[in-house]
Amino acid sequence: MTRPRISARAAGIALGYVADRVFADPRRGHPVAGFGRAAAALERTTYRDSRAAGACHTALLVGGVVGGAVVASRAARRLGWVGETALVAAATWTALGGTSLARVGNEMADRLGADDLTGARELVPSLCGRDPNSLDEAGIARATVESIAENTSDATVGPLVWAAIAGAPGVLGYRAVNTLDAMIGYRSPRYLRFGWAAARLDDVVNLAPARLTGLLAVASAPAVGGSPAASARAWRRDASAHPSPNAGVAEASMAGALGVRLGGRTEYAHGVEERPTLGDGPSPRVGDIARVARLSEVVQAGAAVTAALCVVLAQRRLP
Q1: Residue 269: pLDDT band by 50, 70, 90 thresholds?
Q2: Count of domains in the chain?
Q3: DSSP symbol at 285
Q4: Cα–Cα distance, 307 to 314 (Å, whole number)
Q5: Is the pLDDT at 212 greater than 90, yes or no?
Q6: For position 290, what pLDDT does the model report?
Q7: Do 46 and 189 contact (CB within 8 A), yes or no?
Q8: Which of 315, 255, 18 lies closest to 160 in space, CA to CA?
């Protein structure tokens, strides 16, 4: 009896998550880095200071990735259940970055714990686009907690959700959108209009993943000594004040789970932003970095189980 294709998707999601936990991101030749180089090369041709040019740039890149993944999916189906499972697993592993995210967070905690401020500043670009030289120990701790909270949604929950929804085309398309947003979705003079389409598309594809991240953060708060009620309260009260409809959910719910206060003056390469306050309690300390890395890992595991389980339940409802 032929196995339903949706079972291959669930198995692929599980294997892709396990591969990320075991191998993390490849140090060389990462497909996402290759996509970034291709996007930067194309930008030299497509760039115009207009929304239309940015929309065309985004459509070409995302459409190319999704189209290639659709072709690969059709070829994988000819190989049967094993071929489909292998493709979804490879695509999911390619898109995931949760293990590397937690490892960088723990490395940051170690460096700050050893009073290695110079070494800690060297790690900041691996997490976010803030100016490392403008950050002291407290600033680095806050930037790390905020970045891990936001990127738990972007680097793990988002890929898993879209793998469940649409298999390899979904997860690779999601990663293309998210990468473009990180490259051109800034409110800087160069990208305010050109990056508009990428930023808005990223908002749309992250609506469900961010809210799943919030739910899992609430449920996982006890794993880091936190309160689910405090996490839910911070989400409900503070998330909407954040300029991003999605990052605010992830950051507020994790701030509440950790019992810390996020937000405030934030310096980026493109300028300074005054972020709203998220959560209650003191500003993050060095010890909170290891806690948020642990919380991220628990949320990641919960997202993997949820994604695979949803696929299995959907399979049972099929005729």
Answers
A1: low
A2: 1
A3: -
A4: 11
A5: yes
A6: 97
A7: no
A8: 18
Phi, psi of 74 (to 5 degrees): -65, -40
Residue with tokens 């239309």: 52
Spatial CA neighbour of 90 closest among 217, 178, 175, 187: 175
Instruction: Identify the CA nearest to 46 among candidates 67, 71, 34, 64.
Output: 64
Is pLDDT above 70 for 152? yes
Q: Which string of b and e fits 100-130 if b means at least 16 CB within 10 Å?
A: bbbebbebbbbbbeeeeeeebbebbeebbeb
Going by their DSSP bridges, the two strands 271-278 and 262-268 should be labelled as antiparallel
Domain ranges, residue 265 = 5-317
pLDDT of the residue at 6: 58
What would the two tokens of residue 208 be? 């469900």
271 pLDDT more than 70: no
Dihedral over alpha carbons 51, 54, 58, 60 (to 10 degrees)? 110
Q: Are 243 and 207 in contact (CB under 8 A)?
A: no
Closest by alpha carbon to 9, among 80, 70, 89?
A: 89
Q: Which residue has tokens 């669930």?
A: 10
In this structure, what is the dihedral angle of CA atoms 277, 278, 282, 288, given to the nearest 10 degrees? Answer: -140
Kindly report, residue by residue over 73-112, the tens digit of the pLDDT.
999 999 999 999 999 999 999 999 999 999 999 999 999 9
Is the pLDDT score of 12 beyond 70?
yes
What string of DSSP letters covers 90-146?
Answer: HHHHHH--HHHHHHHHHHHHHHHHTT-HHHHHHHGGGT-SB-GGG--HHHHHHHHHH
